[in-house]
Amino acid sequence: MSDPGATAASPFLEIDRPRWAELAPNATLSLDETQLTRLRGLGEPLDAREVGDVYVPLSRLLNLYATARRRLEGEASAFLGEGATRIPFVIGIAGSVAVGKSTVARLLRELLSRWEGTPRVELVTTDGFLLPNAELERRGLMARKGFPESYDRRALLRFVSRIKSGVEEVRAPFYSHLSYDIVPNAEIVVRRPDVLIVEGLNVLQPPGIGQRLAISDLFDFGIYVDARTADIASWYEERFLRLQRGAFADPKSYFHRYADLTEAEAREKAQQIWAAINEPNLVQNILPTRSRATLVLRKASDHSVRKVLLRKL
User: Do 130 and 183 touch, CB atoms closer than 8 A?
Assistant: First the structure.
């Protein structure tokens, strides 16, 4: 696949970090260390400078898009002689396992809610739309969890469609990372926010064979979190080790069987899982959606964003 920023004919503007950081020079948004600790992902060296240089300008850009969309909706409703209905601005965030997209989503939820015009921001991950483990086992898909076919895509599309239809209250299933499964009778309730962030591996995919619509068709803005595959593999391995020393120790954890591995054994297991599941999913399904994004955050090996690619208007 060609790099969206590789040629002069690209539909993307390629913006290096220093120039990007200058785009919101008067912004006063800041996060203290307690807030950063709550928002950063496992093993991600997120600091105040990264927030100020990268995510504050991004949150401001998204705020501008959202408020412009709201003005357009009002003007279009007036033109059509219809009453205006407030429709949430929906942002999709995609990228590989371990690339840091969940941290990006949490950061943007926090920062966007501080801008005038977008005070109510909700975040939903597509994990809640994974098929239950029992159903994955029945279909022989447990080893392909996270691949497109492991999701209830109709339910996910129905959820986002209801959000974009202005439905007052929409419910999504709840997923537990401890049990590695959908929690029966547990739900996330979304009540018509100003902005909804939908974060997941494959959210930017086009419609599949036989499908007329994909959730990406309903997004107002798509973000792809990008990095070299070798760097992501390294981040995944280090994250696995941290989990093995932490969350996996809980007897209720689905991965408790890995808790007593030596470091060498844990590294080997992480490499096996990456090679068998996560890398194929990245190469076959996730990476090809990068060119569909409105904006690409390109990370260096230290997790810092070095370059931003923004689709031209």
Answer: no
Phi, psi dihedral angles at 300 (to 5 degrees): -90, 180
Do residues 224 and 290 touch, judged by C-beta distance below 8 A?
A: yes
Q: Which of 168, 152, 267 lies closest to 200, judged by CA?
A: 152
Q: Can you name the residues that pair with 182 across neighbouring β-strands?
A: 175
Contact 196, 212 (CB under 8 A): no
Amino acid 42: pLDDT? 72
| 42's tokens | 């496992």
- 37: amino acid identity, one letter: T
Dihedral of CA 3/157/276/299: which sign?
Answer: positive
State pLDDT tens for residues 236-247: 999 999 999 999
E strand or H helix at 272: helix 263-273
Total residue length of the chain:
313
Band the pLDDT of 5: cuts 50, 70, 90.
Answer: very low
Classify domain 12-311 by CATH architecture: 3-Layer(aba) Sandwich (3.40)
CA–CA distance, 299 with 232 (Å, rounded to integer): 10
Please indicate, yes or no, whether the overall pTM of this predicted structure exceeds 0.90: yes
- The mean predicted confidence, pLDDT, of the chain is 93
Residue in the block written with tokens 């260390």: 33
Sign of CA dihedral 10, 12, 17, 23: positive
**Cβ neighbours around 110 below 10 Å, total:** 20
Pairing of strands 305-311, 195-199: unpaired
End-to-end CA distance of the chain: 23
